From TrEMBL:
Keywords: Transferase. Residues 1-83 form the GST N-terminal domain. InterPro entries: Glutathione-S-Trfase_C_sf (IPR036282), Glutathione_S-Trfase (IPR040079), Glutathione_S-Trfase_N (IPR004045), Thioredoxin-like_sf (IPR036249). This is Glutathione S-transferase. GO terms for molecular function: transferase activity. It comes from Nitratireductor pacificus pht-3B. Transmembrane segments: none annotated. It holds the Pfam family GST_N_2.
Amino acid sequence: MPPYRLFWEAMSGAMALEILLEEMGIAYVPVPVDMAAGEHKSAGYLALNPTGQVPALALPTGEVIGESAAIVIALGERHPGSPLVPGAGSPLRARFLRWLVYMAASPYMTFVQFNHPERFIEDEAAHPALVENARRRLLGQFTALDRAISGSPFFLESGVSALDFYLYMLIEFLGDNRQAFDGRARLASLHHAVAAREPVARVRARHG
Ligand SMILES: N[C@@H](CCC(=O)N[C@@H](CS)C(=O)NCC(=O)O)C(=O)O
């Protein structure tokens, strides 16, 4: 069976998946996609992933799937029994899915506005206001996540899971821990505990 191939860009949503693959002990090959050069919109990449987005994961079967949350769920189903992705029979499953989808649908997408205001409005004069609005919304989304943390130091009371890796990544996207942690003590201790894990430090170093 060929290993998984993870279509990858530094400081993209690939980070959480890379951490998950490493923590689950699953063999994979990172495939860098040069987004600055527009490789994600090339005919070759679009044939693999019609949305032209990174991350994407090629399964050992050759099928390519996109969407970071879907990839986490698919990995859990293909490698059942890992506590990192609570399975269908777990009492934590519904909560796990709810917050995983929230992270991918809300803060991850707010980061697009934060980092790329030009995708939302062409008028450059409006960009600073759009970025500031995204920053405020991100902090509100981090507050919601801080309130939702039910474990200590990890998101779920059962211990470390893919939610922790995803949330760690979002905090790294913001880059300014002081802003993220101010008034959000649970978020700070979760980040601290995830950052201390050896596979996480190894993956984080690759993202520069
Ligand atoms: N909903 C997608 C979002 C992925 C996404 O926005 N990726 C960014 C890179 S971090 C991207 O590919 N942007 C280029 C584009 O959307 O055209 C997911 O969760 O995987």
